[in-house]
Amino acid sequence: MSEFTAGIYGHSHPAIRKAIEGGTRGGAQFGAHNTAEARFAAAICARFPSIELVRFTNSGTEANLMAVSAARAITGRPKILVFKGGYHGGVFYFRGNGSALNAPFDFLLGPYNDLEAVEALVQPHRAELAAILIEPMQGATGCIPAERSFLPGCADWRAKPGHC
């Protein structure tokens, strides 16, 4: 497994191994939707009221590609707001000069944690903006947390006419 709980529990903790073995007895990779996935999705939606739908993917990169593509198709708008230093998978990397491997979408590159500057950047493109990709903590840039007002400020743009 490629995640960080080994730092807390160590490798192959007996309770964790037992849970994994029990959970994978009936199969681990189905290649299609299944009842366990549906129950998990329902639990996520119940726990987080702002989440209405869940789509499982094979990776974060795939999830972001699907989300950005869906946002562009549904809204009919081409632009995606991203932030300097942001990382959203292997094809959405915005540290330094970005990446030659980035997916060919029309990006607006804003400064992280500067709501006023981002609003000024986005305002002329408001009618073209399909989505915002944002990290609550920028991991690839040294674990910079969002300032308390930054994330709610970006979310408020949707609700306020005339705002970005």
Features:
164 residues, alpha/beta, two-stranded antiparallel ribbon, 6 helices
Describe this structure in words.
By secondary structure, the protein is of the alpha/beta class. Helices cover 36% and strands 11% of the residues. It has helices spanning 6-9, 14-24, 35-47, 60-75, 115-122, 150-156, and strands at 79-83, 106-110, 129-132, 137-138, 144-145. The strands form 2 sheets. Strands 2-1-3 form a 3-stranded parallel sheet. Strands 4-5 form a two-stranded antiparallel sheet. Strand 4 (137-138) and strand 5 (144-145) form a beta hairpin. The longest helix is centred in the middle third of the chain and has 16 residues, at 60-75.
Fold topology:
Elements: H1 6-9, H2 14-24, H3 35-47, H4 60-75, E1 79-83, E2 106-110, H5 115-122, E3 129-132, E4 137-138, E5 144-145, H6 150-156
Parallel strand pairs: 1-2, 1-3
Antiparallel strand pairs: 4-5
Query: Which quaternary structure do these chains form?
Result: single chain
The biggest sheet amounts to: 3 strands, parallel
Instruction: Please provide the ordered H/E string of secondary-structure elements.
Output: HHHHEEHEEEH
Mean pLDDT: 85
Strand content: 5-15%
Helix content: 25-40%
Label the structural class.
Answer: alpha/beta
Q: N-to-C terminal Cα separation, in Å?
A: 40 Å
Number of strands: 5
Radius of gyration: 19 Å
**Morphology:** globular
The number of helices is: 6
Low-confidence stretches: none
Strand order in the largest sheet: 2-1-3
